[in-house]
Design brief:
This protein has 260 residues and is α/β, with parallel strands linked by helices. It has a single domain, classed as Rossmann fold, CATH 3.40.50.300. The protein has seven helices and twelve strands. The chain has a six-stranded mixed beta sheet, sandwiched between helices. The protein has a four-stranded antiparallel beta sheet with strand order 2-1-4-5, covered by helices on one side. It has a two-stranded antiparallel ribbon with strand order 11-12. Helix 5 runs parallel beside helix 6. The longest helix has 18 residues.
């Protein structure tokens, strides 16, 4: 079976070095590593924001360099850490911008466009403030709106650059559940960059750990949950709290570990 995404020997000197991995349909991959390890650069290469890389990246068996840009935008949606806010734009109008791969310049909205936006608003639970202005939203609400706009693209693959990074505890708790609903209800695959190692306790298929632009680990989350592997990725002492992998384990910096 052809994987949804196949990355072979992806290199962008000096940031990324010889990365290879696969992602199946409906799978969720977490990408972890220190600042500067190449996580965000990887997403920008996969979205063709950056094109000065070598190696091959194939989507459904076709090189992403050969896919027409408008068709590519129907297949891949990139959700950045933050997006520029247009103060006078309503949530619904912003989510409508996600339909750009399906519309011609100045073309009127179709019933299909409206239905896609309605579904995106419903799935992200942003219907109650669909007519509010973007500038009036909280950080967690805005993150849901960015996800809704990406959903309106109806992609096969979401690229998510730290979707919980600036959120309070409530947002950090809610967004992972929303991402899981997006995966299960749309059938899309997700690649999510995160600094939060405790996201490994969520239902993700695999984790890719980068250090110095190279893959230090790629495999099931349980394989990351040992102190030696964590030390090789983050170059600092981290300790694991909790029982076995089935019971849930949590990672804390050495200095934050409870004193017994």
């Amino acid at each position: 079976m052809i994987p949804l995404l196949e990355v072979c020997h992806l290199t962008r000197t000096p940031i990324l070095r010889d990365l290879s991995f696969q992602l199946g349909k409906k799978e969720h991959l977490l990408v972890v590593g220190q600042n500067g390890a190449g996580k965000s650069t990887l997403l920008r290469c996969l979205d063709l924001i950056l094109t000065d890389w070598t190696g091959t990246v194939a989507l459904d068996g076709v090189s992403i360099r050969e896919i027409p840009r408008k068709l590519f935008a129907r297949k891949v949606a990139f959700v950045r850490q933050s997006a520029e806010v247009i103060p006078d734009m309503t949530v619904r109008r912003f989510v409508l911008t996600g339909r750009y791969p399906y519309r011609g310049l100045l073309a009127p909205l179709t019933r299909q466009d409206e239905d896609a936006v309605d579904r995106a608003l419903e799935l992200t639970e942003t219907v109650p403030f669909a007519e509010r202005k973007l500038a009036a939203l909280s950080g967690g609400e805005r993150q849901r709106v960015w996800l809704a706009a990406a959903l309106a693209q109806e992609p096969e693959l979401f690229l998510l650059d730290e979707p919980t990074v600036f959120l309070d505890y409530r947002g950090q708790n809610e967004i992972p559940g929303l991402l899981e609903r997006i995966r299960t209800e749309t059938g899309a695959a997700l690649i999510e960059v995160t600094h939060n190692l405790n996201r490994l306790n969520r239902s993700v298929a695999a984790v890719l750990a980068l250090a110095g632009g190279r893959a230090v680990y790629c495999g099931p989350p349980s394989g990351m949950m040992n102190e030696e592997t964590l030390r090789s990725v983050f170059e600092t002492e981290l300790r694991i709290l909790g029982g076995g992998a089935e019971g849930g384990q949590f990672v804390l910096p050495e200095n934050d570990f409870p004193v017994r």
